[in-house]
Design a protein that fits this description.
It is a single chain. Helix content is about 65%, strand content about 0%. The chain has 15 helices and two strands. It has a two-stranded antiparallel ribbon with strand order 1-2. The longest helix is centred in the middle third of the chain and has 32 residues.
Length: about 325
């Protein structure tokens, strides 16, 4: 598997369809992660986590996580809900929440509670595109222009990199130490989350922007929309695991990351961890707060640094073929 080039990143960022663009972004992140791992050795890099975060974002962009939440709330067996969920997915694939589609334009004119999901999906799609074009592009450029061990090429590369990312790519170039790699991942993660702050706020606020002065069933539906959107943004699906971002992550840290010794890593963790001797609950109660997101991400990156299943492919080869042909595959994405 080869890494995407700078030109390919530009092409993907220019795809008009948010759903198709997200699928290509997710696949590109998986390729960037694999190519970066060849440089850095065992252990997850930032692109490894970005793959699964982008895949999760895709469910919001396509409206499929609403299906998951409704199924959970109805407490009905999956087989009984299959006709309903099949119809819902059929409508989504035909543009129910896409304002550029004929169906989406019709639904938009009706001003239903679906407006909130459309706004949230749009904000998530813009954030997905922004981070990929900024950070994903720099990974592609790093892999394309900086051969392993070529410090002169690294220096030339760093001259055009955002200041917040320079130390991270320097670590990726020089180090294979788990603590140094964790620090690089967290530095990029902090930059990513800082850049995403507006879009995260927009997604969480979408139900309030579309709230209508009505009573009865539609008012109930609007309140349910607020609850569902918040729940959708507080989930991360990894291979074999679904994480609730509002709950503490109890997974132990690997031995080589349990007691950080790198002064820069210690300092960065101290910005988001509670004081020693106090209860350390990393669950984010307000995902709009950068510090709470970073507290959870710090635990996630440490606990899952050596989780080999994160290197699994996000899509099947048949799905990839359809995605690259400009089609939305059927089945779980």
């Amino acid at each position: 598997m080869t890494a995407p080039t700078q030109e390919e990143v530009r092409r993907i960022g220019a795809i008009a369809s948010p759903a198709l663009r997200n699928l290509e972004i997710t696949y590109a992140y998986s390729r960037l992660a694999a190519a970066t791992a060849e440089r850095t050795g065992p252990g997850a890099n930032w692109c490894t986590f970005a793959t699964w975060a982008s895949r999760q974002a895709g469910r919001t962009i396509r409206g499929e996580d609403l299906e998951d939440q409704l199924r959970a709330r109805l407490l009905a067996p999956r087989e009984l809900l299959r006709p309903l969920t099949s119809l819902w997915r059929w409508l989504l694939r035909r543009g129910l929440l896409d304002p550029s589609s004929r169906l989406g334009r019709i639904v938009g004119r009706l001003h239903t509670p679906f407006d909130a999901f459309e706004l949230a999906g749009d904000a998530v799609a813009r954030g997905n595109k922004k981070v990929f074009e900024e950070i994903g592009f720099e990974f592609a450029r790093f892999l394309e222009r900086v051969p392993p061990g070529d410090d002169a090429a690294l220096d030339a590369f760093l001259r055009d990199v955002a200041e917040e990312l320079r130390a991270s790519f320097t670590r990726y170039h020089h180090d294979r130490d788990p603590q140094s790699l964790l620090l690089a991942n967290l530095e990029i993660g902090l930059h990513e989350q800082t850049r995403l702050q507006p879009e995260i706020g927009e997604a969480l606020d979408a139900p309030y922007k579309t709230a209508l002065p009505i009573i009865g069933p539609q008012k109930l539906a609007s309140r349910l929309a607020r609850e569902l959107i918040t729940a959708n943004l507080m989930v991360l699906t990894l291979p074999g695991r679904v994480l609730a971002l509002g709950a503490n992550l109890p997974d132990p840290f690997p031995d080589d990351l349990r007691t950080p010794a790198d002064p820069a890593l210690v300092a960065l963790l101290a910005r988001f961890e509670p004081p020693p001797g106090t209860v350390d609950d990393c669950g984010a109660h307000d995902w709009s707060e950068l510090a709470q997101r970073m507290h959870y991400i710090a635990h996630l990156f440490r606990a899952f640094h050596g989780t080999h299943t994160l290197s699994d492919a996000p899509f099947t080869s048949a799905q990839v073929e359809l995605i690259l042909a400009g089609s939305l595959p059927d089945g779980e994405l």
